[in-house]
Amino acid sequence: MSLRSFLKLVEIQTKLASMIPFLLGTFYVLYRFNTFKLLNFLLMLISLLCVDMATTAVNNYKDYKRANKRHGYGYEKHNVIVRDNLKESTVLMVIFVLYAIAIIFGILLFLHTDIVVLLLGIFSFMIGVLYSCGPVPISRTPFGEIFSGGVMGFIIPFLSVYIHIFDKNIIVFTWQEGFLSFQFNITEILYIILVSIPSVIGIANIMLANNICDMEDDIENKRYTLPIYIGKNTSLMIFKILYYICYILLIIMLALRVIPWISAITLITFFIVSKNIKMFYEKQTKKDTFVVAVKNFVIINSVLAFTLAVEVVIKHL
Q1: Beta strands in 205-314 (DSSP E)
Q2: 149 in Cβ contact with 207 (< 8 Å)
Q3: Is the pLDDT of residue 75 over 50?
Q4: Tally of domains within the chain
Q5: Is 198 within 8 Å of 302 (Cβ atoms)?
Q6: CA angle, 114 as apex, 112 and 116 as ends, to 5°?
Q7: What H or E segment, with its residue span, contains residue 1?
Q8: Using an 8 Å Cβ cutoff, are 44 and 112 in contact?
């Protein structure tokens, strides 16, 4: 397999969907807690990148295996296994190696942190596998947006924060005389949830836009996604409303001082996002307008992460 085919198989350009939430959480923990553990950062980075690439490769492989129609709708162009005539054994080996690396580095991260990382890591890994595998993969159900947004949009930034503050009693498990006790700092957990919501919404809308664009193809290949159930018009309305919710919550975070005042710059992105929403409303195709959902995600979350980074630099000057 050539490097070009590998990068296409794992859709390397889509890894922003995991890297941006990861960096968002990292800059937030630097801003909020003024702490950073380099080893944990590197271990999570490698594990996260590998599991993300493996999940994408599995999704492409399963789409290839399940496709009733492998020609038409551009299928033979956007599925690399068909386009590059890749051997199934080679694809499966790549998937196995990526998952193996992700598991090894995930275990190392757990050994340097605590059980919370292990539990969330196992849950995320299971969702990643079930997203494309099993008798009814999540990607072929109306729940794809919820799971992709929840896992990638929330668990990634949460873990990218937690791996640096696991020893600060944000979450505490205790076992004493046969009783398991669980406690957590509700204020800090709530703040992390709020900071994560722009990522949750951005990733969920990428999935939603993808499914809206693929409605005709999905019906042909028996993928019963959310837009198939609720219709295109309702899906487009949800697509727009979610962005509005995102900006309302950004204002709330500024008011509560969850994020610094410099992060108000993120609100300016509303004008760009609104223009992109209008563009997607007018036409919904993978070739022409799907990219606006990706752009919206990158614009909102990159600016938010950047402003947090700037605030960290200012505090240390």
Answers
A1: none
A2: yes
A3: no
A4: 1
A5: no
A6: 135
A7: none
A8: no
